[in-house]
């Protein structure tokens, strides 16, 4: 398990922590509390390992809202850190506040699992087997719509102590303990198999990042506040014109379905699934030739 120490512990209402992996690394902002990583022996777990460690160390009980901020927050979110910190402060008292760095995906994917299956084939089955193994009874095939109120593709959130207990303690910790105790189990091996991405990685971190939105959609009593996303914001987050074409094309039926509050019809679901497939193929084709803007490397 990842170990760390707080270099500049804060007793403030909001505690946003930044992991520092190198001895000479310094925090990128005075708004963040540095975490010196003593042991990064599970780099393939990514932020999942740090969140579990923070929980087990009781860091989440120091603040009214606690979160983990990736060094790529500004690059991915397109939201200034100061703005996000102010948003979290304004929503202290909510269970969790968050920002979704990929709002455009809501226009061509019904939920995180539809998109995930195209991006990482086999992800859904591996995730379901993992949840079943640790006793979390979520049928992923019936997870509802993830619109902008619940959608988040990165761990850019800050939660109350109670939210940490329910989500991290109740969902992420059992998964981590199973993977640590039974790495040879076929279910554990399945989630640790490599998948294609802009950075080499197993399925596990992509499963974990989708559990956040899944938790919110299955627990509507949880008061979650998302940084507001408008249509123009979604267009601005698109990385190329191909994405903007899909967002514009899908805007009317998707926004109408979201506004109606009714289940998405079969025709729209099939259309979104097809758009997911087209977008994913474009993604693989394009970034096998040119560097991805988040990594500077091809896949």
Protein model, in words:
This protein is of the alpha/beta class. The protein contains 11 helices and 9 strands. It has helices at 47-57, 73-77, 81-90, 112-119, 123-133, 161-181, 186-191, 204-218, 231-237, 241-260, 266-287; strands at residues 3-6, 14-20, 33-39, 65-68, 96-98, 157-159, 194-195, 201-202, 224-226. The strands form 2 sheets. Strands 1-3-2-4-6-5-9 form a 7-stranded mixed beta sheet, sandwiched between helices. Helix 10 (241-260) runs antiparallel to helix 11 (266-287). The relative contact order is 0.14.
Concise synopsis of the structure shown:
With 299 residues, this protein is α/β, with parallel strands linked by helices. It has helices spanning 47-57, 73-77, 81-90, 112-119, 123-133, 161-181, 186-191, 204-218, 231-237, 241-260, 266-287; strands at 3-6, 14-20, 33-39, 65-68, 96-98, 157-159, 194-195, 201-202, 224-226. It is built from eleven helices and nine strands.
- Unreliable stretches (pLDDT < 50, length at least 5) are 1-11
Shape: globular
Helix proportion range: 40-55%
- Secondary structure tally: strands: 9
Spatial extent as radius of gyration? 19 Å
Q: Which structural class best describes the helix and strand composition?
A: alpha/beta
Arrangement of strands in the largest sheet = 1-3-2-4-6-5-9
């Amino acid at each position: 398990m990842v170990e760390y120490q707080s270099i500049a512990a804060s007793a403030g209402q909001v505690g946003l922590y930044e992991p520092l992996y190198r001895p000479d690394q310094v925090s990128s902002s005075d708004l963040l509390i540095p975490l010196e990583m003593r042991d990064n022996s599970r780099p393939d777990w990514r932020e999942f390992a740090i969140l579990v460690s923070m929980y087990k160390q009781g860091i989440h009980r120091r603040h009214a809202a606690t979160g983990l901020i990736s060094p790529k927050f500004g690059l991915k979110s397109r939201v200034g850190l100061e703005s996000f910190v102010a948003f979290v402060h304004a929503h202290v008292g909510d269970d969790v506040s968050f920002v979704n760095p990929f709002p455009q995906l809501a226009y061509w994917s019904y939920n995180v699992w539809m998109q995930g299956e195209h991006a990482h084939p086999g992800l859904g089955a591996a995730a379901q087997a993992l949840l079943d193994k640790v006793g979390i009874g979520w049928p992923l095939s019936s997870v509802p719509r993830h619109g902008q109120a619940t959608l988040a593709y990165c761990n850019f959130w800050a939660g109350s102590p109670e939210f940490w207990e329910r989500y991290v303690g109740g969902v992420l910790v059992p998964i981590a303990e199973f993977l640590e105790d039974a790495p040879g189990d076929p279910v554990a091996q399945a989630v640790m198999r490599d998948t294609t991405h802009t950075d080499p990685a197993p399925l596990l971190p992509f499963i974990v990042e989708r559990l956040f939105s899944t938790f919110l959609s299955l627990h509507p009593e949880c008061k979650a506040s998302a940084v507001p996303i408008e249509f123009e914001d979604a267009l601005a987050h698109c990385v190329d014109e191909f994405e903007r074409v899909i967002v514009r094309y899908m805007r009317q039926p998707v926004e109408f379905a979201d506004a109606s509050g009714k289940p998405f019809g079969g025709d729209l679901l099939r259309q979104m699934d097809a758009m997911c497939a087209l977008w994913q193929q474009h993604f693989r084709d394009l970034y096998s030739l040119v560097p991805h803007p988040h990594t500077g490397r091809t896949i």
